[in-house]
Amino acid sequence: QVQLVESGGGLVQAGGSLRLSCAASGRTFSRYHMGWFRQAPGKEREFVAAVSSSGDTTNYADSVKGRFTISRDNAKNTVYLQMNKLKPEHTAVYYCAAARVRWGESDDYDLWGQGTQVTVSS
CA-CA distance, 67 to 103, in Å (whole number)? Predict the structure, then answer.
């Protein structure tokens, strides 16, 4: 089974950028669709972005289109979330997750990382 470890979170001022990384162990990373989710204080976990197993197809929440970019490098077993023009409302714990077949809903993702905190100050 693939294991996921997020990194790259931290404190950044509004308007700044961060790049989150999700490093995967295991030999089947390229078989999984990968997604990024986030959970802000007092709110439920929400979908942010996803990329197909091959990297050919991406999907974004409307709220982050044009601001966040998801990508993956299967040779490095890593998925990225480039976050630009950050706003305080982007503050949340960000999780990466892996889905084997379906990847349209949160329940489709069977494997989850531990999360990395992103805090955007005003």
Answer: 22
